[in-house]
Specification:
By secondary structure, the protein is of the alpha+beta class. The protein has 1 helix and 3 strands, in the order βββα. The model has no long low-confidence stretch (mean pLDDT about 90).
Length: about 60
């Protein structure tokens, strides 16, 4: 998959004017969908959470 970085706003840490990558659409119950962009450190954190989930089989949320 080709990655295309752009300068913009990170939706996770709210850093401005940083290199960000489009991760996909996110959905809101009230507002519909929007494009999710994150910076490299936030992407690395999300990847670590995903890896933990796959290793431990633990949910990424609490009900």
């Amino acid at each position: 998959m080709k990655t295309t970085w752009a300068h913009g706003f990170c939706w996770r840490c709210e850093a401005e004017d940083v290199p960000v990558l489009w991760l996909g659409p996110v959905q809101s119950d009230r507002e519909g969908t929007a494009p999710l962009y994150c910076c490299e450190p936030c992407i690395q954190r999300l990847e670590a959470l995903i890896a933990h989930h796959h290793r431990e089989g633990a949910p990424l949320y609490r009900s």
